[in-house]
Write a structure and sequence with these properties.
- This protein has 224 residues and is α/β, with parallel strands linked by helices.
- The chain has one domain: Alpha-Beta Complex (Maf protein), CATH 3.90.950.
- Helix content is 29%, strand content 22%.
- Strands 1, 2, 3, 4, 5, 6, 7, 8 and 9 form a nine-stranded mixed sheet that branches.
- The longest helix is centred in the middle third of the chain and has 16 residues.
């Protein structure tokens, strides 16, 4: 995986030698819900974006790393090398304090044999493991790590963010396809689950929106 000269503290001056303007980013995900969410944030901050589906059939990079940020880098790098575009990718999951950070990077593959589960299966497994655990020990983090690769596979931007909450004892009333843990991720300060946030509340409580804001500032410097 290529890295820029000052990685991970790359800045506009460092990147001037690349002499490439960023006209758009390709969102490196085949998860429709994830793509739509990032597109919404990118539009807010004036970032032009495209979908992987615009480039035909692509090989999905292997997510073999033990950390979210490394998996985000692998995806950004892997897709950038195939399509020769600036690619933004993220990786995230659920980290339950009581269970030592489980399921972590394997958040979608917690069925026996490491198989991927449906949204409902993932919710049920977590709630079953946390059955009887008192509220004060149900603390948890929704984690998201993001990386941006240039067309040559050099990682030029990255960030990692968290949303702290408590695992509810029962699922909330809203399920967002592709984001099962948000249905049980209770935010005490709002008295509701993450999945129930209004558009206004998302602006102040989304853990991903600040990434888009930082990325927009980075791109402004990059393109200056």
């Amino acid at each position: 995986m290529g890295l820029c000269c000052n990685y991970p503290k790359c800045d506009a001056k460092c990147l001037q030698r690349f002499r490439i303007m960023v006209e758009r980013l390709v969102i490196g995900s085949k998860n429709i819900g994830k793509v739509d969410e990032w597109k919404q944030f990118f539009r807010e901050f004036g970032i032009e974006s495209a979908n992987l589906s615009d480039f035909g059939e692509l090989e999905s990079p292997m997510e073999t790393a033990s950390t979210f940020i490394e998996n985000a880098r692998l995806k950004a790098f892997g897709y950038a090398k195939q399509i020769h575009e600036f690619v933004f990718a993220d990786d995230g999951g659920y980290e339950i304090d009581y269970l030592g950070g489980w399921p972590g990077t394997g958040s979608r593959r917690i069925l026996s044999g490491g198989k991927e589960g449906t949204d409902q299966e993932l919710i049920e497994i977590v709630l079953r493991k946390m059955k009887g655990v008192p509220r004060e020990k149900r603390t948890v983090k929704l984690t998201s790590a993001a990386a941006l690769s240039d067309p040559k596979g050099r990682i030029i931007f990255e960030d990692i963010v968290h949303s702290a909450g408590i695992i509810s004892e029962v699922p909330g009333p809203v399920l967002i396809p592709g984001y099962p843990f948000r249905t049980i991720h209770f935010l005490p300060e709002l008295g509701k689950t993450y999945a129930e946030l209004t558009e206004e509340e998302i602006r102040s409580h989304s853990h991903k929106r600040p990434v888009a804001e930082k990325l927009a500032k980075f791109l402004d410097e990059f393109n200056a």
